[in-house]
Amino acid sequence: MKQRLLTAAIGIPLFFVVLFFYATPVFNGALSLILGIGVYELLQTAQYGRKKVITVTCVLFGVLLPWFELPVLKPYRVILLFLFAAVLMAALLKWHDEIRMEQISQLFFVSVVYPIALTTLVYIRDSFDTAHGLFYTVLVFSCAWAADAGAYFAGRFFGKHKMSPKISPNKTIEGLIGGVITSLLFAVAISAAFSAIMASQNVAVSINYLSLLGATLLGTMVGVFGDLVASVMKRQNGIKDYGTIMPGHGGIVDRFDSVFFVAPAIFVWLQFFMI
């Protein structure tokens, strides 16, 4: 518990520093850093670190994805994706006695799908004005982290009924309910704060609370789904955490496993329903 709180005491201020530079390349750089470490953790977990050329290529591609919207890279996104796939196929040919095709598929998933999922935060920023984009981004993290915190404490004090004992023994139905309630309360609080800030600048904001409720419920449940997927991957690889970079939490993937799923879910929601 002390380690979790200490990590939070360091991480939360850093989070707000990054949000302060939300409309700048600093935000892209922060996502690149997260993805670089995250892809590396996933590769090490799956024991692909023995081939350094594969590791370096996968990490670099993951780091590059948050910058694909730059004018200099945007026209070449598809080309870069196919070049990356070609490198993986070349690795399969070179080390065909050691690497199987399903492992190449896993490498592609880890290096492309996960980074694209987190990069939807850039798409959210670029699809709206800065204020609204920032609000939606904070909502993403609220659905992931507020729900996680609420589930942790509700499960610890009230948890009796296991939700998925074979995948994640510590998760309970009571924890899930506590996480959903906490996430909803945070979403309402964030919306009220956003409205007040905009009103102080003489800008009237109307919140569609029905859409907010739907987006928050979707984000929270998808976040739980992402957390369980990460737990399955850890169990299949026989590890407890993806890393040790964040004491009390584990690795970058341990802390962002829900965000990888919540961000694209909220992005899709916003294509059909405004908040």
TrEMBL record:
<feature type="transmembrane region" description="Helical">
    <location>
        <begin position="76"/>
        <end position="95"/>
    </location>
</feature>
<dbReference type="GO" id="GO:0004605">
    <property type="term" value="F:phosphatidate cytidylyltransferase activity"/>
</dbReference>
<keyword id="KW-0444">Lipid biosynthesis</keyword>
<keyword id="KW-1133">Transmembrane helix</keyword>
<comment type="similarity">
    <text>Belongs to the CDS family.</text>
</comment>
<dbReference type="GO" id="GO:0016024">
    <property type="term" value="P:CDP-diacylglycerol biosynthetic process"/>
</dbReference>
<protein>
    <recommendedName>
        <fullName>Phosphatidate cytidylyltransferase</fullName>
        <ecNumber>2.7.7.41</ecNumber>
    </recommendedName>
</protein>
<dbReference type="GO" id="GO:0005886">
    <property type="term" value="C:plasma membrane"/>
</dbReference>
<feature type="transmembrane region" description="Helical">
    <location>
        <begin position="53"/>
        <end position="70"/>
    </location>
</feature>
<keyword id="KW-0808">Transferase</keyword>
<comment type="pathway">
    <text>Phospholipid metabolism; CDP-diacylglycerol biosynthesis; CDP-diacylglycerol from sn-glycerol 3-phosphate: step 3/3.</text>
</comment>
<keyword id="KW-0812">Transmembrane</keyword>
<keyword id="KW-1003">Cell membrane</keyword>
<feature type="transmembrane region" description="Helical">
    <location>
        <begin position="256"/>
        <end position="274"/>
    </location>
</feature>
<keyword id="KW-1208">Phospholipid metabolism</keyword>
<feature type="transmembrane region" description="Helical">
    <location>
        <begin position="136"/>
        <end position="155"/>
    </location>
</feature>
<feature type="transmembrane region" description="Helical">
    <location>
        <begin position="29"/>
        <end position="46"/>
    </location>
</feature>
<feature type="transmembrane region" description="Helical">
    <location>
        <begin position="107"/>
        <end position="124"/>
    </location>
</feature>
<dbReference type="Pfam" id="PF01148">
    <property type="entry name" value="CTP_transf_1"/>
</dbReference>
<comment type="pathway">
    <text>Lipid metabolism.</text>
</comment>
<keyword id="KW-0443">Lipid metabolism</keyword>
<feature type="transmembrane region" description="Helical">
    <location>
        <begin position="209"/>
        <end position="230"/>
    </location>
</feature>
<feature type="transmembrane region" description="Helical">
    <location>
        <begin position="176"/>
        <end position="197"/>
    </location>
</feature>
<feature type="transmembrane region" description="Helical">
    <location>
        <begin position="5"/>
        <end position="23"/>
    </location>
</feature>
<keyword id="KW-0548">Nucleotidyltransferase</keyword>
<keyword id="KW-0594">Phospholipid biosynthesis</keyword>
<keyword id="KW-0472">Membrane</keyword>
